[in-house]
Structures are given as C-alpha cells and as structure tokens.
C-alpha cells in the first residue's frame, strides 16, 4: 500500500456542475472553505459556454474572488479553444480536457467521434503548452458506457498512447456513470500501464452502485496514488436521478486515514465543509461519513 | 479469490426489525419473493419479546405462512431460552444467538456484561444441540463500538475461542454501527483465524460510512466466503438516523458476479424483490444497484 495519496477535490467544479445553480458568493465560500482543509489539489471551475452549463457561467468571477492558498494546486476544465484561452487568461496553469472512450457517449456529449475529439485535444495541448500550462486528458466512460456497455481497456489504453504522444502531461480516468468495479479497475490500470508505464494516472470514481471505495482499494493495491473525490458526494449522476454520483471526499479520506495512508487533509475540517455544502445547496448530500461522522466520533454512554 | 460465496439474506429479520412495522402479509410476501431468487440462506425471523421488538411480534405466524423452498436454509435469531424454545417449536434447525464484543454495548442491549452473556450462550448452545439444532454465535460490535471506539481483535478472538469451546457450530461478526474498514476486517479475520482456524466464519457489514463493499473485497482476499446482506439495504442504523445500515444484497451480488464469483442468486430477480421491499415499506431504500440498475442495464441510445 502507498504511504500517501493525492486527493483532488472536485466539488467546486464537477460537483456543482451537476447540481442546481447556486449564487457566486456561495461558490466562493465553498472553494475557500476547501482551501482550508489541507487538501492540496482543487478542481476550481470550468470555462464552458453558459448556455451549455449555466452552473459555471460565473467561473471568471468565482475564480477572481476565491482566495488562492499557497501549496494548493488549482485546476480548471475546458471543452475547447475558447475555454482554454479563458482559463489561461484567468491564470490557470493546470488545465483539463475531456474525451469519452465510448464513441457513442462522445457523440452524445460533443457531437463528434472519439477520434475527432482526439484531434481537437492534440491542438489544445499545443495551445496550453505554448502558454506554459500543463495539460491533463480526462478519459470519460473508462470503466463502461451507459449506451455501449463494457468499454475495452485496450481501447482506453490506445487513447492514452495517442494523447501521451500528443504531449499530455497526465491522464485521468472517469467512471462517468458508476460502472466501475474492482475487476474493471484492475483490467484498466493494467492495460494502461502495459502501454504507457510512465504517465501519471488519476482515477475518478462514482459511487452509483456502491463500489467506489472497493474500487479505490483495488487501485491502491495496484499502486495508484491519485484520486478525484467530491466533498459531501456533491454532483448527482445525470443518468440515474437520485443515485449518488461522485465518491465523497470524506468517505475516501476516512478509509485512507484508517489504513494509515496520508492525504494531508484534516478530516474533521472536511466534514465541516460537507456540512457547509449541504447548507449552500439546501439539500442532503449522500456522504455516509457526513451523515454518521467518522468511526472515531463516539456516542455518549 | 473464491469461486463462490454464500450470501445469507437478512432483510426479513435484521432488516425489518430496524424499520417501521409492516403487516404480517407483507412480511410473508417479502420472504416468499426472496425464496425465489436463488439465494440459499435466509434469516427469516427472530423470536423476541413483542414489547422489546414489536416488528417481530408475529414471527410465529409469518413463519407458518411462508413457503419453505427446497434447498434454502432458513434461520432464526433468539435472545434467550424462551426464544430458543419458540424457534425450536416452530421447526428451525439453524438458530443464532448474539453477544456484543463491547461490554458497554452488551450492557446497553441486555443489561449484562459480555462475560455474563457468554455464560447464558453456553447454556443456550446446549439447549439447541439437545434439540438437534445448530447454533451460530453472532459477535456484535466486532469492528468497533459506538460507545467504546475500537474493539481489540484479540478480545473478539477470545470470545470466539470461548464459544467454540462451548460448542458453537459457527460464528458471525457484526459491524453493528458501520465502523468496519478494510484494515479492521483484515485485523479481525487474522486474529480469529490464529486462534480458531477451523470454525466457519460469516461477516455482516453495514454501509454506514461507505465501506461495505471495500470490506467485502478485503474479506474475499482473506478467503472468507460467507456474508450477510439485506435486500435493498433494508434496516436503517439506529445510531445514525438517515444513515444506511445493512449492506444491500444486490450491491454485494452485483460486485461479486462482475468478479466471476458465483452466488446462485438471480440479480434481476433480486432487484425486483428490492423494488417490492420499497413498495411494502412505502419508502426509498438506500441501495445503489436498486436505484441505478446493474451496470449491464444500458440506456437506450
């Protein structure tokens, strides 16, 4: 088992993007609270068209008003050249782009084939590198596609090979609709490592079918040390109304700390931010550790 | 990894005991539906004082009316001699008794120390064996106590040694308030095996803090092949209102089948029973696989 893992908190972007819109000030409060938990990486905003994703229409203002804490790496997600230019102008140096491993899912999202999106991404990587930023490619539906079903790990590994050749600094694998299982994690990580052993890898799990922490455990056994998670489990799954979406950061941290694996995060502070997120959203979030408290929080006798 | 695991469905007893009471006919419907899923073991009822647990006041009638399916092993839980006599009179030959590894928790439950309860259990085992029944001892709070915190695996192993000496045919370990984690599972199973390598072991997980399937995965890696689970995740956790309680059977089966591990259970039929359970209870149950469907259930393009 690794001695430490690096958690990227994605609540402010991936989480809020999949919830009802909240005011700009609330987004800033959430970001600032997260910056105080000890987490070292935060996906802060995305620069997308406000008609496509109204939840991120105020990304520039959110980022301008948010406190930038020394030692925290902030990233932004962009869908295209226009978004990349906005992210660079806002000062981001870690930028994510997305492609779906499933052709059907990619067409549904951006009306282009996976191959066409990979061509776009090659150009985006050049743009980002030219401006001195690092480019991460997120491969969505890496563990399964809601339309196509199983996604061949060899296909995902081929995509990784392609984007690494095109200059990607890092790759992330999204379990977009929670189809990941320990078996799929093992198969995917092994296939990617066989083809590209050196590229930094991050895994992004959803808890739609209860497997998120089992997947995390499997990945740890394979030596993976970078994971996305979303405070409170922010970000419902659009394909399954009512189902939980993102792995809750405090559930991940709770299990990791119990295993003696360092994250740098203050779990109590994080649970406090999850409580704040519920208040800001005005709804109950699916995190069990938020609900019940860490296992170390005892009941009075 | 084992090729097959044995799931004991505990929704009709442990599940319903921790929900609002439902009519006798509804309980019979649930039991009969479960008997048709291919599951090979069902904890059917408990024989407890109706004032203590009104949900089980009609246990005799539920059991009399339920269809007994060939090849399914049905068990009952009893708290004392009176309950054991009722279970034997009803024809049960697999009977469970409970003790809590934590002294504080045991006193809260039955106003006796763990040691005093173990003396009672020794006498109960004799009674059950004298009537030709098998006795399983369930050790509650095996992975942690909500009042005391961590429970020493050596203490749990000592309890196992004692009950095996007293004739217990099997032992089960309950994660009563969802404090189990992969680390605690590994420590407990190892400690018990060191002391009593031959006694059949069953693990009962709660998903209160999201760890249930990670715990299951860890136990599989240790060669454990018997688990409790509750259809739909029936049975809220009394210590954490709103938190999920029992591991949902369909979440366990979904992950196990994906790993190629046989359970004998028809997953689609099981999800149908989880839907029935929601209807009978008139509430939403916490199971993700119930909500989103198995990963193989695709969305129309």
TrEMBL record, chains A, B:
Keyword Lyase present in the record's keywords: the answer is: yes
User: Which species is this record about?
Assistant: Micromonospora humidisoli
Region (Disordered) residue spans? 1-21
Q: What Gene3D superfamilies does the annotation carry?
A: Aldolase class I
Gene Ontology MF, one: lyase activity
Annotated NCBIfam families: PRK05692.1
Matching InterPro entries = Aldolase_TIM (IPR013785), HMGL (IPR043594), PYR_CT (IPR000891)
Which Pfam families does the entry link to?
A: HMGL-like
Q: What is this protein called?
A: Hydroxymethylglutaryl-CoA lyase
Q: What is the lineage of its organism?
A: Bacteria, Bacillati, Actinomycetota, Actinomycetes, Micromonosporales
The alphabetized UniProt keywords are:
Lyase, Metal-binding
Report the family membership: Belongs to the HMG-CoA lyase family.
Q: Which residues form the Pyruvate carboxyltransferase domain?
A: 5-271
């Amino acid at each position: 088992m690794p001695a430490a893992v690096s958690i990227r908190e994605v609540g402010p972007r991936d989480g809020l993007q999949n919830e009802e819109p909240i005011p700009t000030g609330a987004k800033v409060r959430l970001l600032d609270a997260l910056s105080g938990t000890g987490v070292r990486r935060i996906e802060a905003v995305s620069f997308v068209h406000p008609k496509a994703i109204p939840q991120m229409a105020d990304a520039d203002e959110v980022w301008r008003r948010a406190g930038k804490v020394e030692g925290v790496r902030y990233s932004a997600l962009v869908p295209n050249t226009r978004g990349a230019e906005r992210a660079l102008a806002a000062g981001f140096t870690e930028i994510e782009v997305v492609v779906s491993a499933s052709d059907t899912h990619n067409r549904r999202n951006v009306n282009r084939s996976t191959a066409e999106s990979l061509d776009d991404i090659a150009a985006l990587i050049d743009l980002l590198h030219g401006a001195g930023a690092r480019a991460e490619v997120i491969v969505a539906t890496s563990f399964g596609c809601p339309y196509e079903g199983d996604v061949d790990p060899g296909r995902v590994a081929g995509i990784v090979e392609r984007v690494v050749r095109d200059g990607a600094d890092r790759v992330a694998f999204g379990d977009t609709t929670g189809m990941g299982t320990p078996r799929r994690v093992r198969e995917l990580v092994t296939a990617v490592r066989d083809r590209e052993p050196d590229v930094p890898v991050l895994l992004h799990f959803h808890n739609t079918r209860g497997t998120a922490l089992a997947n995390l455990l499997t990945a740890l056994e394979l030596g993976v040390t970078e994971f996305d998670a979303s405070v409170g489990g922010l970000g419902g799954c659009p394909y399954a109304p009512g189902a939980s979406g993102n792995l809750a950061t405090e559930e991940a941290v709770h299990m990791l700390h119990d295993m003696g694996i360092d994250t740098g995060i203050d779990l109590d502070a994080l649970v406090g931010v999850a409580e704040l997120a519920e208040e800001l959203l005005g709804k109950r979030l699916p995190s069990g550790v938020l609900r019940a408290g860490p296992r170390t929080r005892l009941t009075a006798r």
